[in-house]
Structure formats: C-alpha cells, structure tokens
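Repro:
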Amino acid sequence: MELDQRLRDEHRRATLFWIPSHCNIDGNELADDLAKKGTLEPNVTLSHAPSITKIKSSNRRAARRSWTEHWRQSTTTTHFAPRSRDPDPSIVDVHSSLSPQESRWLTWFRSGNLPLRYMLAKSDAAISPRCRCGKDDETRDHFLFHCDQWDLARRKHIEPLYAGMPWAANLDTVLGDQQGRTALFNFIGETRRFS
C-alpha cells in the first residue's frame, strides 16, 4: 500500500468507494474516464483532484452534448424548430387587443390546458374525465365540436365558420383568425362553461 503511506505522510485522507459501472450514478462516466487516464500516467498528482463542482459541471456538459447530438440525429424530432424565448409579435398583437378574460380563454384553447373535466381529472382522482353528456371525455375538441349540451351555442357561433365544409371543423379554423376567435369567445360566453 504505497499510496496509503504517501497519503499519511502528506496528512491527507482518502475514502475509496466501489461503484458499479453503467448504473446511472452521477459522475460514473467521468470517474471511469479519469480512472482510465490515471492508469496511463506514471505519477499520480493528488494535489489537483477535481472538485465535486467541477465533476458535476463536466457531467452536465457531457449530458447536454449527448442530448444535443441525439436530438440532431433523431428522425422524429426534425419538425421542431429552435424557439426563441421572446413571444411571437403577432401573438402579442392578438392578445393586446383582447380583454383579460378573452386572453385567458385563448391561451387555454391554444395550449389545451383548459379547466375541463379531462384536464382536471389528471390532478384530482376524485374527478371523472367524462363529460356530463356521458358520450366521451370532456376534452377541448369534445367541448367545441361534439358535446350535445352545447349544440345550440355551437350551431349559432362555431358551425358558421365551416358551413358546408365539415372537414374544416377543427381548432385551426376556430383559432386561425379574428372571426374564429370572436366566434369562440361568443360560444364560451353563451355556454357559461368557465364562469
């Protein structure tokens, strides 16, 4: 144990741990690389051991590089474009012309995170995702296009947007322009579903 004596002579302490390889333990890959490099060096210098902060930082950089490379090579993610942190100016323009309530509704419908039973059931097991009409889960599309409870309001406000074109009964038609958004807001107001 030459190393053990050297540590004692320099008044240093070391604790050795056995770590199984490839078990998703933080720092494992870096430790493997450092151990391999250490076997190639004739003299091991103990005064320059990496700090935990450096090891963690190195791990984060390696994970980011690996993830970025995987993302670039993936064939299923090519339709995603890099996004800026700034909102699209056209979205800002749309929202600036809306009331706070209308802005909230538009954000809910664009994101799909509406206070409908389907979403509420995800965070509260006591709530059933089924719509009160009993036909399906109360999702955004069910509420807008299919629920019998809102047939009259739908005929009055939503269906004229795609009259004669049933294939156009989709969210893009409703949210796509000012006329569609106005119809959506009138529909929601008449249903009083979010009051």
